[in-house]
Every structure is written in C-alpha cells, then in structure tokens.
C-alpha cells in the first residue's frame, strides 16, 4: 500500500499512528497562573486521534509571555496542570509535544513582571499592537538583550524542557517561527546586533543553535523538533534573503538528529505578497523528518507525503474545528467550519463543543 496520511511514522523517538499532526494553536484559555485547567484537558483529549498533537505555544518563563491567558511551562502548578493533559491524551493512545515559546518583542509591559519592557535582539519597535488584558495597545520599543543575558534565556529553555518532561510530554518543539524571539534573532529585519549574535547568518542562527544544543542535551535530540516560518511576515518580520538564511538553518540543524523540522510554508495573519521560497529544497537540506504546515487539505497532504516532500502534515484550523479530523479525512466526511470569533479566549464555546461525527 502506498504511504499516505494514515500511515504510521516515527519522528525520531516519537512514534505516530498516522501522519496527521495537530498544529500549535494559541487559544488563550489557561487558568489562573498559566495553569492548564479542565477544559484544556478536554480539548486536547478530544483531538488524541491525531498522530501527534503539538500544543499551543507555551511561555518558558514569566518574561516569555505576550498575550492574555496563556498556559506556561515553568512552575510546579503548570507542570501538574499539563500532566492532566498528557495523561488524558496518552490514555486515548495519542502523542503530544509542547511548543516552547519566548515572544521577545511581541509583548507589552502590562503582560510582564513589574511592568518591564519586552526584550529583543535589537531595540526595534514592531509595527502593530499587542493583545493585552486592557485590549489592543501599540507595541513599545523593546530593550535589546545584552549578550551576557543570553545564557539566562537558554537556561529558561532548559528549565522549561525539564518541566515538560516532568509533565509527561513525548517531546518538545522549539518555536523559532512567526516573529517571536528566536525568529527575531534569525531575521535581519529585527536583528541589527553587532556582536556575535547579529550580522552574518551564522551569527543570527547562534541563539537558536545554543537553545537547540541545550534542549537536546536534556530531552534527547530524537524528542526535539524545531518550527520555522521562512516567509511569514506576521509580527512585522522581514529578511533580506530568506532562502539563504533558512537553507543554512536546515543544514545547521541536521547534525543534531532532531525528531523533526516543522515549517510554516507561507504567511499567517498577514496580507500582501509572500516572498518566493523553495520548501522542497529546504526539506532536502534537512537530514531528518519534515512536517509541512499551512493550507493543506487531505489531497495536498497525501500528495506531499506520497512525493516524499513531507513525512507528516500539520493541520491547524481543521483540527480546531474537527476533533475527529483523522476519521473525517478517512471517510471523506464533511468538515465542521471553524468560528473565528472564538479562536482567542473565552469559554468552552468554540473550544470543546465542536461535534464529532
Ligand atoms: C497568535 O497568537 O496569533 C499566534 C501565536 C503564536 C504563533 C502564531 C500566532 O506562532
């Protein structure tokens, strides 16, 4: 039989019963203190027929927050809350990794400890507005991190990885996409540093590689994935040569022996032209498994897998609205439509009440 979305696959040490991955989706419904609560357990457990669930982006420290009601993965209470999630997913035969997140400049003092400034590679205010508890507020100029502070950020990733393992996750995904901290270091529109973390591609990749080295040392490389978004302009992002940059990122990540590389193959939350980019070339440079994401349906997902252009395909909004997406694709059943009004924040409505077949 030909390999398709419903074929099992091993991504490093993580064995998937099918190749349909639930993409990370910010839902802003964590409990007090960033602790996952009962409705979060229900939501993830409902989607356990995915080959792999990647959790919503999850801050690794108090300074890593940039939106209301995010879960965290750095306190004991958060670990206990996530343990309920991983237990429920595992009880239904699913696999789940947590996406480790530092938002960098995409934050606001009102979301940070003692009202401090967000941190970033360079003091460049992004265009746009932060989502705060007081509503939309213009972004502020972030504080440029001193090189002496970067080991502390790496240590926060290590601590979060230890918390993730204690919470029973099957692995972790390093979020290096979508204009958040690691991506801000990668791309030259947001990184104007003159030390060895800025300038050349090698220098701009350094923080991602430092983090990858440290996280893989704790979790084992075969339980670690990395997510990138080479052409996403969301969060006021730009790079002068995305193909050169991300080809080098793929090459530099190869020797680690990661579980997977995960690419957002387009732009989210943004309008206008998307830079030309050859994702097949990127995928060939990465010597490991590759998860493709963005805009795939069943036919395109099967085609990507049959051609070898992807080992698995991540579906976001389709999984949000269809907890039983795998079953629906299997029998070509109609899909529930997603309600965008309930994507971010709120109650069980638009969260755990999408019907199964
Ligand atoms: C969002 O909140 O819209 C969001 C969060 C994390 C991402 C992308 C989008 O990686």
Automatic annotation (TrEMBL):
EC number: 1.-.-.-
Name by which UniProt lists this protein: N-ethylmaleimide reductase
GO molecular function, a single term: FMN binding
Source organism (scientific name): mine drainage metagenome
One Pfam family it belongs to: Oxidored_FMN
Recorded family membership: Belongs to the NADH:flavin oxidoreductase/NADH oxidase family.
PANTHER family: NADH OXIDOREDUCTASE-RELATED (PTHR22893), NADPH DEHYDROGENASE 2-RELATED (PTHR22893:SF91)
Keyword tags: Oxidoreductase
Keyword S-adenosyl-L-methionine: no
SUPFAM superfamilies referenced in this protein's UniProt entry, alphabetically: FMN-linked oxidoreductases
Swiss-Prot/TrEMBL cofactor(s): FMN
Broad EC category: oxidoreductase
InterPro entries: Aldolase_TIM, OxRdtase_FMN_N, Oye-like
CDD domains: OYE_like_FMN
Domain NADH:flavin oxidoreductase/NADH oxidase N-terminal: 4-334
Gene Ontology CC terms, in alphabetical order: cytosol
């Amino acid at each position: 039989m030909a390999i398709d979305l419903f074929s099992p696959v091993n991504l490093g040490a993580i064995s998937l019963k099918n190749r349909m991955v639930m993409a990370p989706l910010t839902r802003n419904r964590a409990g007090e203190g960033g602790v996952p609560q009962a409705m979060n357990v229900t939501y993830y457990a409902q989607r356990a027929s995915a080959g792999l669930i990647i959790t919503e982006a999850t801050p690794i420290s108090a300074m890593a927050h940039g939106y209301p009601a995010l879960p965290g993965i750095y306190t004991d209470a958060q670990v206990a809350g996530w343990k309920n999630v991983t237990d429920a997913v595992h009880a239904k035969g699913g696999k789940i990794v947590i996406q480790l997140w530092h938002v960098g400049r995409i934050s606001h003092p009102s979301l940070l400890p003692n009202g401090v400034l967000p941190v970033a590679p360079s003091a460049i205010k992004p265009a746009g507005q932060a989502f705060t508890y007081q509503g939309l507020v213009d972004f502020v100029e972030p504080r440029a991190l001193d090189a002496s502070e970067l080991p502390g950020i790496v240590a926060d990733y290590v601590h979060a990885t230890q918390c993730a393992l204690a919470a029973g996750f099957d692995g972790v995904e390093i979020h290096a996409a979508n204009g958040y901290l690691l991506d801000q270091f990668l791309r030259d529109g947001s990184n104007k540093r003159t030390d060895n973390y800025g300038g050349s591609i090698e220098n701009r990749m350094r923080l991602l590689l430092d983090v990858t080295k440290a996280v893989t040392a704790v979790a084992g490389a075969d339980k670690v994935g990395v997510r990138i978004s080479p052409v996403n302009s969301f969060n006021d992002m730009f790079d002068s040569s995305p193909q050169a940059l991300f080809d080098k990122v793929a090459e530099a990540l190869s020797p680690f022996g990661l579980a997977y590389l995960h690419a957002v193959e387009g732009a989210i939350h943004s309008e206008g032209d998307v830079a030309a980019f050859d994702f097949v070339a990127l995928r060939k440079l990465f010597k490991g498994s590759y998860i493709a994401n963005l805009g795939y349906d069943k036919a395109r997902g099967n085609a990507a897998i049959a051609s070898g252009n992807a080992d698995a395909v991540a579906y976001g909004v389709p999984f949000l609205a269809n907890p039983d997406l795998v079953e629906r694709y299997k029998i070509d059943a109609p899909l529930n439509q997603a309600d965008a009004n309930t994507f971010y924040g709120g109650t069980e409505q638009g969260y755990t009440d999408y019907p199964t077949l």
